[in-house]
Design brief:
The chain is an alpha+beta fold and 472 residues long. The chain has 3 domains: 7-153, no CATH class; 166-267, Roll (Pdz3 Domain); 271-467, 2-enoyl-CoA Hydratase, Chain A, domain 1 (Alpha-Beta Complex). 30% of the residues lie in helices and 20% in strands. The chain has 14 helices and 21 strands. The protein has helices spanning 7-20, 26-29, 52-65, 74-91, 108-123, 130-143, 178-183, 200-204, 270-273, 297-309, 329-336, 382-392, 452-457, 461-470; strands at residues 151-153, 166-169, 172-174, 194-197, 212-216, 222-223, 226-227, 244-250, 255-261, 264-267, 276-281, 285-290, 316-320, 344-349, 355-359, 371-375, 397-400, 411-415, 421-425, 428-430, 446-447. Strands 11-12-13-16-17-21 form a 6-stranded mixed β-sheet, with helices on both faces. Strands 1-19-18 form a 3-stranded antiparallel β-sheet, with helices on both faces. A 3-stranded antiparallel β-sheet has the order 5-8-9, with no helix packed on it. A hairpin with a 5-residue loop joins strand 14 (344-349) and strand 15 (355-359). Helix 4 (74-91) runs parallel beside helix 5 (108-123). It is globular and about 75 Å long. The two termini are 37 Å apart. Mean pLDDT is 89; it is low at 1-34. Residues 1-21 form the signal peptide. Residues 169-234 form the PDZ domain. InterPro entries: ClpP/crotonase-like_dom_sf, PDZ, PDZ_sf, Tail-specific_protease. One of its GO terms (cellular component) is outer membrane-bounded periplasmic space.
């Protein structure tokens, strides 16, 4: 499933995946108290309040359908939910003397009953906080999974007057991108710098590629080489739009300055909206940039290569997957099938070791061309499916940096009783050699990072290396 930054886009993809997925057998879908945990068959109706009954439904939904639900210690979920509840009480200055974590035994149903009794006793004393406490409790339970493909999608809003093609945010991208911030922030490497100025406030403020971000709202983005939570402010979500103060360094001139940028809507360049972009390099190399594994994206890539192949002999293909946040695993497998047949491209496994396989679609015509794939730390999910297969199956060579390590498994969505969506993987992703990629990423064959100086001058050392490899 794609890792997306905007709530509106994330909900759209979640619904698309959910409404086309088969409904699990009732034995898997049923939860406690007769409630049902199943994929939605249509977009949900208007969201209603989150209650303890909805939390119960989500709790048993996870235990019955999450890939490691059968072996998961459910006490970890309830403890995380209770921690979130008490923290919210503290934030509101409304702590309750009886807000003490109850003793849990490991019996899932009995522990839920114990938790629910304590929860109701606490929330009955602060009825005005009941709705907020329910939300943070469920968020805490989902967060306890520690899974970058687990999401509770609720309270989705779009900015006013939001049109197709609009962007929302600060108007730039940095080398530490959304998938890292959301799913695996520990992989980020210093320094933090602007890679692309897309428009909006960043453009008005005069930001340029290569500008190093030394602080965000007064906080350092890295401390002793470790990324800090401050980086998340670069990717605001509507409606939590607060101005962001940046301290910047332009290395070419030595200039240091501070600018405050307010998130908002901006019109993106039309070329940047294209999922597939292609061109001919050095008269004999097909370059294709794929920004996401959207429906039919594999066919569009193959058609682009075919057009570039007309009237000439190609030396190879450069597939640029930098910044690709993922998408459909079906499209990932189909694209790989143009370069190899008769292979397993990934495994999807349950906690007990039972695995299904993703196999190449051998009806796809082979291109019979050398391949170099460009990767970076923003290549996540389905993008890592492709990267691992290219490396393990020796389809081509990877150039750039290690991928994001955000590929827990394809997420399935479930409709909760308040018309919100709970999503998580029913299977865990492994590479073709059965290796774990989640949290690890896929290392390149040739490590070629982008530097602030490269971004400032428009150099692309990874692409230059790819062309060298194809012309050897």
């Amino acid at each position: 499933m794609t890792i997306l930054r905007t709530a509106a886009s994330g909900l759209a993809l979640l619904l698309a995946a959910a409404c086309t997925a088969p409904t699990p057998p009732r034995s898997q879908a049923s939860t406690a108290a007769g409630t049902v945990c199943a994929p939605p068959q249509a977009p949900p109706e208007a969201e209603t309040a989150t209650t303890i009954d909805v939390i119960e439904q989500a709790y048993f939904c996870i235990l019955g359908n999450y890939y490691s639900g059968a072996t998961l210690d459910a006490r970890s979920l309830l403890t995380a939910g209770f921690v979130a509840l008490t923290q919210e009480l503290n934030r509101g200055g409304r702590d309750v003397p009886d807000a003490i974590m109850p003793a849990l035994t490991g019996d899932r149903k009995a522990d839920w009953a114990t938790f629910e009794t304590a929860y109701r006793k606490i929330t009955d004393q602060v009825p005005d906080l009941r709705d907020k406490l329910a939300v943070v409790t469920l968020e805490g339970i989902v967060a306890a999974l520690g899974d970058n493909h687990a999401r509770w999608t609720h309270d989705v809003k779009r900015p006013p007057d939001y049109y197709d093609g609009d962007g929302y945010g600060l108007g730039f991208q940095a080398n530490v991108n959304g998938p890292q911030v959301d799913g695996n922030p520990g992989v980020a490497l210093a320094p933090l710098f602007v890679t692309t100025v897309q428009g909006g406030a960043a453009n008005a403020a005069g930001l340029r590629p290569g500008d190093v971000i030394e602080s965000i709202n007064g906080s350092a983005p890295f401390i002793d080489g470790t990324p800090t939570p401050a980086i998340a402010a670069l990717y605001p979500r509507y409606p939590e739009a607060r101005p962001v103060e940046l301290r910047l360094l332009r290395q070419a001139t030595g200039r240091r300055w501070t600018v405050t940028i307010k998130p908002g809507l901006y019109q993106r360049d039309l070329a940047a909206l294209q999922v597939v972009r292609s061109k001919l390099l050095d008269d004999d190399v097909a370059y294709v940039r794929l920004t996401g594994f959207a429906p039919d994206s594999a066919n569009r890539v193959l058609k682009a290569i075919s057009r570039l192949r007309i009237g000439r002999t190609l030396a190879g293909v450069v597939l640029d997957l930098r910044g690709n946040g993922g998408g459909s695993p079906v499209e990932a497998t189909r694209l790989l099938s143009a370069f190899v047949h008769g292979k397993i491209t990934a495994y999807q496994c349950a906690a007990g070791g039972r695995c299904s396989t993703a196999r190449t679609d051998d009806t796809v015509e082979l291109l019979e061309l050398p391949l170099v794939v460009l990767t970076d730390r923003s290549c996540a999910s389905a993008c890592e499916h492709v990267s691992a297969a290219v490396k393990d199956l020796r389809i081509g060579r990877l150039v750039g940096t290690r991928t994001a390590g955000v590929i827990s498994g394809p997420a399935q969505s479930y409709l909760l009783g308040n018309n919100t969506l709970l999503g998580f993987p029913a299977r865990h992703h492994l590479g073709p050699n059965r290796e774990v990629i989640d949290q690890v990423g896929v290392p390149p064959d040739h490590y070629v990072p982008l530097t602030p100086q490269d971004a400032a001058t428009g150099r692309d050392p990874a692409l230059a290396k790819a062309l060298t490899l194809l012309h050897k």
